């Protein structure tokens, strides 16, 4: 075990029993500190300030820290070496989180950043009282919340004598008040004459735990009696000092003795000098200077943008103890909030008061009447509360998080360009957590995984596929057209992609049921009694956790990556040569690769429908570029490209939200709800009042709100992937027609228009005829016995696969709960018999034949078998994942809310999205289709078919 590990084991105890349990607690505290900042802003005016130490009478960049030439051997560690000298930044502050006059009773603080090298620095933070008023982080945050926004005597008294005892108990509150009174009773005449003690201990290499302090160096002149009515007297006093001479402090350390007299976990106990003498080891010098010069004022402004954190250090000097462990998450959150990188959305009082009784009422009501059978206004309100429950209980973070906290360098500055443009790989969407949702991030969960290797082949997935999924006859979805099928695959390719092992790597083997004949796993290969296909590559996890954590090869954000690519190299390759803003096209079509498949951001599982979507939106990108160039001739080609990416990605998100989804979930409640997501509720008093009472944040539409990840950092989930398995939408054959006279061009099978054959076919047919052909034809219904035959034996990456078997196997092996557990986890009653799932006699018989009990039913099978609400294209159980994740994808993405604004998109860009839709995209590039598209409906509804004319040519071309 390392020395650091020994100290951790010997001195530290984790609240909740483990580092992970403590981490979750600290994350909650961090959110609460941001809420404290909001209340302090209202009390103090202006913008968001630091949660504590909001006002700094002095801040300088040119200080120096020099270690003494004679240094005790035990204290020589890392940067602490005899005679070593380093530049330092110093900020001396008042402790309150509300900016107020320097004469107000308060503690004072010192923040020092010692810069050792380009890669190493150490933040030392201290306060002008030997101990904290709080033993631990729980008490610290409780005190902060009790005093948040308190300015006058009455407000402070209410916080100290009412709120605080209610939060921590009377005895603890009394102790905390005594500490605070003793600390603030002290009269401060100069920041230069104060002593500043660290809050808790830090490790000092092999010397073990220490507390440190900064005290005025011997010989420092006393402060003159100030004019205490001057709200800036502390600044004026130290400015006058520095105008004459240096201000010097001694850095001292007190070494750990034992847990009783020098405790690590209890920050409220003083390490008395008689027990742990303070040993001077270095001098901190603030050189004489003019604090009121332009140079000094500019330095002070830069320092105000810094985020100090005691964890910005090295392992040898990492903080110790509960209150220090909490500071990493707490300080990072509050500084990100202050700098506009992280946000907090306060729930209005009326929503907090009415939420519990209304949630209980709907829970009771839904036992007897499902939401979709309620009157319109009541069903809308029911959905509001269902989403709240899902947000609270069904967002599970799966990323391996840091627990306990670790020392780290000061974070690199945010690349300035990424404040106003999307990165290629999804990093820096959340500026406070740059890796959130990026390429490679783990899929989250909506339900706790249920990993059962002994059930991977039970029942046999080939049997399930052939008895329950195989398309015996085509069942159409008559309210939709095939463009809706192409669209959802176009979207899924932007959202999710599990990495697979390359051919010849690790494979899944599925035994064929007896008597089913052989299966050819490769083109021209021998028949075998097993199906084989590439296994997914999992992410490594600590401990003995099962291999069910997977990274997303796509970014989790709605960023148009299927068009633009997931990395900069791909994105630049797809652009016109010499850095042009437009995407490369050949006669209006995507350029083809050596295998005949077009070059685009994501081109797996390629077919003619995908080609139509990619071609349309590549053209749309170029149209946006041309419009931006004409409207803003001074914009660079790079800025035009990046702005067009933003515009097209947002337009895609809008189309999916307010057009595709209401088309497949064709009910008035869903149409209203989804339009509310984007543009706010209908302007009638009942909707407005209902949302004001129960969810006021929905009054404006998500693009006018702030980012909110709710209960977990943003990611798409394995459960989301499962409910978007919509392969039955794909027909097995297609009739291609021309749109002028309605004549049939040819009838083709799916395999004739997929892979390398797709692009030749669409160029021959033409984009307008392709769109027309798909617009007048129906996709398949998302139900049992309707899986495309073409996808049950087709070639991909050198394998021949049955995609229906792959879907079943992937879902099982990723630990997605089986159907009955899945629906119960989404707050629906469990089914007790097969008859509760379906009344179809043939389906019922086959379910009983394949499964031994309802608890064994595969998730995909149950979702397809479930009788959906009237107008729905898929089940109510699947819809619950949708209602949670549909708003989450908008609410978490800053480019679809706080940065969805003219300054980022340009006024033209915002107007393009707000006025645009699928109809406008199609008509911009195929205006000849105008009379054929549906009136008063989306482009995903069936189009008007042209009746073939008697005098047209047989090939429809004339």
From TrEMBL:
Q: Which domain of life does the UniProt lineage start with?
A: Bacteria
Spell out the SUPFAM superfamilies in the cross-references. Heme-dependent catalase-like, Heme-dependent peroxidases
Which UniProt key words apply to this protein?
Answer: Dioxygenase, Fatty acid biosynthesis, Fatty acid metabolism, Heme, Iron, Lipid biosynthesis, Lipid metabolism, Metal-binding, Oxidoreductase, Oxylipin biosynthesis, Peroxidase, Plant defense
Q: Which cofactor does it need?
A: Ca(2+)
Q: Which GO terms describe its biological process?
A: defense response; fatty acid biosynthetic process; oxylipin biosynthetic process; response to oxidative stress
Which GO terms of the molecular function aspect are on file? Answer: heme binding; metal ion binding; oxidoreductase activity, acting on single donors with incorporation of molecular oxygen, incorporation of two atoms of oxygen; peroxidase activity
Indicate whether Ubl conjugation appears among the record's keywords: no
State the name under which the record lists this protein: Peroxidase
Q: Per the UniProt entry, what species is this protein from, by scientific name? A: Streptomyces albiflavescens
């Amino acid at each position: 075990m390392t020395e650091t590990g020994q100290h951790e084991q010997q001195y530290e105890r984790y609240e909740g029993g483990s580092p992970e349990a403590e981490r979750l607690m600290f994350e909650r505290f961090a959110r609460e500190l941001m809420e404290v900042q909001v209340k302090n802003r209202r009390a103090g005016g202006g913008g968001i300030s630091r949660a504590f130490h909001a006002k700094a009478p002095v801040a300088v960049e040119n200080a120096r820290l020099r270690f003494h030439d004679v240094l005790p051997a035990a204290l020589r560690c890392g940067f602490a070496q005899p005679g070593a000298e380093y530049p330092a930044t110093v900020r001396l502050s008042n402790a309150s989180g509300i900016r107020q006059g320097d004469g107000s009773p308060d503690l004072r603080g010192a923040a020092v950043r010692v810069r050792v090298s380009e890669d190493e620095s150490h933040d030392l933070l201290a306060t002008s009282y030997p101990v904290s008023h709080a033993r631990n982080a729980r008490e610290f945050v409780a005190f902060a919340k009790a005093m948040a926004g308190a300015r006058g005597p009455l407000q402070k008294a209410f916080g100290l004598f009412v709120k605080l005892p209610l939060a921590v108990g009377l005895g603890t509150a009394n102790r905390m008040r005594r500490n605070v009174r003793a600390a603030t009773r002290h009269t401060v005449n100069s920041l230069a004459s104060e002593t500043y003690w660290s809050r808790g201990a830090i490790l000092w290499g092999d010397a073990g735990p220490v507390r440190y302090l900064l005290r005025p160096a011997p010989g420092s002149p006393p402060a003159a009696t100030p004019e205490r009515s001057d709200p800036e007297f502390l600044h004026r006093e130290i400015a006058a000092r520095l105008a004459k001479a240096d201000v010097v402090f001694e850095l001292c350390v007190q070494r750990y003795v034992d847990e009783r007299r020098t405790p690590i976990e209890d920050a409220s106990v003083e390490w008395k000098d008689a027990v742990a003498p303070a040993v001077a080891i270095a001098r901190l010098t603030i050189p004489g200077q003019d604090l009121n010069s332009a140079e000094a004022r500019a330095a002070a402004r830069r320092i105000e943008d810094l985020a100090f954190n005691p964890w910005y250090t090295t392992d040898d000097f990492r903080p110790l103890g509960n209150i220090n462990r909490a500071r990493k998450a707490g300080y990072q959150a509050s500084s990100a909030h202050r700098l506009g990188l992280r946000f907090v959305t306060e729930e209005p009082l009326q929503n907090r008061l009415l939420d519990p009784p209304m949630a209980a009422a709907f829970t009771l009501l839904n036992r007897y009447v499902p939401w979709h059978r309620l009157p319109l206004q009541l069903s809308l309100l029911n959905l509001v509360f269902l989403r709240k429950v899902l947000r609270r209980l069904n967002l599970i973070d799966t990323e391996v998080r840091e627990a306990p906290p670790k020392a780290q360098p000061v974070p690199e500055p945010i690349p300035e360009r990424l404040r106003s443009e999307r990165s290629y790989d999804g990093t820096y969407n959340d500026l406070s957590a740059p890796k959130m949702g990026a390429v490679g991030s783990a899929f989250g969960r909506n339900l706790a995984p249920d990993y059962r290797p002994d059930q991977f082949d039970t029942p046999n997935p080939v049997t399930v596929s052939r008895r329950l999924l195989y398309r015996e006859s085509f069942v159409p979805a008559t309210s939709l057209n095939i463009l809706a099928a192409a669209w959802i695959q176009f979207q899924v390719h932007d959202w999710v992609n599990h990495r697979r092992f390359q051919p010849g790597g690790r494979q899944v083997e599925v035994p064929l049921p007896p008597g089913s004949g052989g299966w050819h796993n490769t083109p021209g290969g021998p028949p075998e009694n097993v199906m084989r296909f590439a296994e997914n590559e999992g992410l490594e996890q600590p401990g003995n956790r099962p291999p069910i954590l997977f990274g997303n090869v796509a970014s989790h954000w709605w960023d148009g990556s299927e068009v633009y690519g997931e990395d900069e190299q791909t994105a630049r390759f797809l652009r016109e040569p010499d850095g042009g803003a437009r995407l490369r096209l050949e006669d209006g079509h995507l350029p083809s690769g050596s295998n005949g498949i077009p070059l685009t951001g994501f081109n797996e599982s390629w077919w003619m429908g995908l080609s139509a979507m990619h071609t349309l939106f590549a053209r749309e990108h170029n149209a946006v570029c041309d419009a931006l160039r004409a409207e803003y001739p001074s914009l660079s080609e790079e800025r035009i490209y990046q702005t067009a990416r933003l515009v097209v990605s947002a337009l895609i998100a809008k189309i999916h939200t307010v057009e595709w989804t209401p088309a497949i979930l064709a009910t008035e409640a869903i149409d209203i709800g989804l339009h509310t997501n984007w543009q706010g509720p209908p302007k009638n008093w009942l909707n407005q009042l209902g949302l004001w009472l129960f969810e006021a944040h929905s009054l404006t539409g998500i693009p006018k709100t702030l980012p909110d990840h709710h209960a977990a950092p943003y990611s798409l989930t394995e459960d989301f992937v499962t409910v978007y398995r919509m392969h039955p939408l794909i027909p097995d054959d297609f009739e291609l027609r021309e749109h002028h006279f309605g004549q049939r061009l040819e009838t083709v099978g799916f395999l004739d228009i997929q892979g390398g054959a797709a692009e030749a076919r669409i160029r021959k047919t033409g984009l307008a005829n392709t769109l027309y052909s798909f617009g007048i034809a129906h996709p398949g219904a998302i139900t049992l016995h309707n899986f495309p035959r073409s996808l049950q034996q087709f070639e991909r990456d050198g394998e021949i696969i049955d995609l229906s078997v792959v879907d079943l196997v992937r879902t099982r092996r990723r630990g997605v709960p089986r159907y009955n557990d899945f629906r119960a986890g989404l707050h629906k009653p469990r089914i007790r018999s097969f008859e509760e799932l379906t009344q179809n006699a043939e389906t019922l018989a086959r379910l009983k034949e394949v499964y031994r009990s309802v608890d064994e039913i595969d998730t995909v099978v149950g979702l397809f078998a479930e009788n959906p609400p009237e107008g729905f294209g898929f089940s109510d159980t699947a819809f619950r994942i949708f209602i949670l994740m549909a708003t989450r994808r908008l609410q978490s993405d800053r480019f679809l809310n706080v940065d969805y604004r003219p300054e980022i998109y340009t006024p033209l860009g915002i107007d393009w999205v707000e006025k645009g839709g699928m109809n406008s995209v199609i008509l911009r590039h195929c205006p000849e289709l105008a009379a054929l598209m549906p009136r008063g409906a989306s482009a995903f509804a069936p189009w008007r078919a042209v009746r073939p004319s008697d005098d047209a040519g047989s090939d429809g071309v004339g």
